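Try this one yourself first.
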């Protein structure tokens, strides 16, 4: 069941998306039935801890899953076109032109042996746009738009000559140079200092708002979601367990994981609170609620045997729970268990 979004035309519709990473010895169920929509001009945050499946989800959406990862079920519709199952050549035509991608590591995204100008030329010409002189002017204008003071020098240079913040600005310029309708930013400020982080996030938001673009912002930082997003999806163990308007989800969380995630945010003068228990292994999925062993509201008999689907708990606010939180009895915290499977940065 797809969590309802705001009453805007949907640009992106993800339905029951499932991703597995298979090897000879094991299968990791990284994404387990993710469904959501993204409206025109909307900014949605996808939040969760490392290993919860955020990166696997966005890479499945844009067709950049690396082997042995693969989509095993579900659909990803962009403006009505199902991207799952498209040929690589077809996906390359969609990426850049319709979807702009800002990855975690800008130096991994840039080609270290090509000048920056050549990389702009390759992106633009790959989609059949612009002549050589026009491409240079477009690249200069785009670098100026992302706040680079000397775009001529940057165009002549190479990736290794850039600072981390400057490299990320170049990647953002490359992602948006063809004016895509959707921008997907996967932890775009990883490894940058706090001041540069804020500048980069402000830049992405401003560029999206100016052109009316939609944006999916992936992060582990609840504060980033609160500041830059209108709606949030909370992800746990490969599932979206809660979604809704940012203010409502962050002030009235309906899922116990969201509650624990917010309690774990560091606050000055307060003791850091950790969630009890451990993330379940994604090698063998539990029969019931994935959060059962850690949940302090696990009194409903269905919790251990029946996975809860997303249900509406307020206007536009959805949570994967069996219980009514207002009437639920809070149980003692479960003991800390053994850690789940190491799924890496999924």
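Now uncover the answer:
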């Amino acid at each position: 069941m797809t969590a309802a979004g705001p009453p805007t035309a949907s640009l992106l519709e993800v339905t029951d998306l499932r991703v597995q990473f298979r090897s000879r010895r094991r299968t990791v169920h990284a994404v387990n039935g993710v469904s959501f929509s993204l409206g025109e001009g909307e900014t949605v945050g996808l939040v969760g801890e490392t290993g919860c499946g955020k990166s696997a989800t966005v890479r499945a959406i844009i067709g950049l899953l690396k082997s042995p990862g693969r989509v095993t079920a579900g659909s990803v519709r962009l403006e009505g076109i199902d991207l799952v199952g498209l040929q690589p050549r077809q996906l390359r035509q969609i990426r850049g032109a319709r979807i702009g991608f800002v990855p975690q590591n800008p130096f991994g995204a840039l080609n270290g042996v090509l000048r920056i100008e050549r990389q702009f030329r390759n992106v633009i010409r790959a989609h059949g746009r612009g002549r050589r002189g026009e491409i240079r002017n477009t690249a200069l204008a785009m670098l100026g738009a992302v706040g680079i003071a000397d775009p001529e020098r940057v165009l002549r240079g190479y990736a290794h000559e850039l600072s981390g913040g400057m490299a990320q600005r170049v990647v953002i310029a490359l992602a948006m140079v063809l004016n895509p309708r959707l921008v997907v930013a996967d932890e775009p400020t990883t490894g940058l200092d706090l001041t540069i982080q804020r500048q980069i996030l402000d830049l992405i938001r401003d560029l999206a708002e100016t052109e009316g673009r939609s944006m999916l912002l992936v992060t582990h930082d609840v504060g980033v979601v609160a500041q830059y997003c209108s709606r949030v999806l909370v992800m746990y163990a490969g599932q979206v367990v809660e979604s809704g308007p940012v203010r409502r989800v962050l002030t009235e969380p309906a899922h116990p994981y969201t509650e624990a995630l917010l309690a774990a945010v560091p606050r000055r003068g307060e003791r850091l609170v950790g969630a009890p228990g451990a993330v379940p292994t994604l090698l063998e999925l539990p029969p019931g609620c994935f959060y059962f062993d850690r949940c302090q509201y696990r009194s409903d008999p269905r919790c251990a045997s029946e996975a809860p689907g997303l249900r509406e708990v307020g206007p536009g606010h959805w949570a994967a729970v069996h219980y009514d939180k207002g009437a639920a009895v809070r149980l003692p915290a479960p003991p800390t268990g053994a850690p789940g499977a190491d799924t890496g940065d999924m």
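Discussion: Confidence is low (pLDDT under 50) at residues 1-7, 337-344. The two ends are 23 Å apart (CA to CA).
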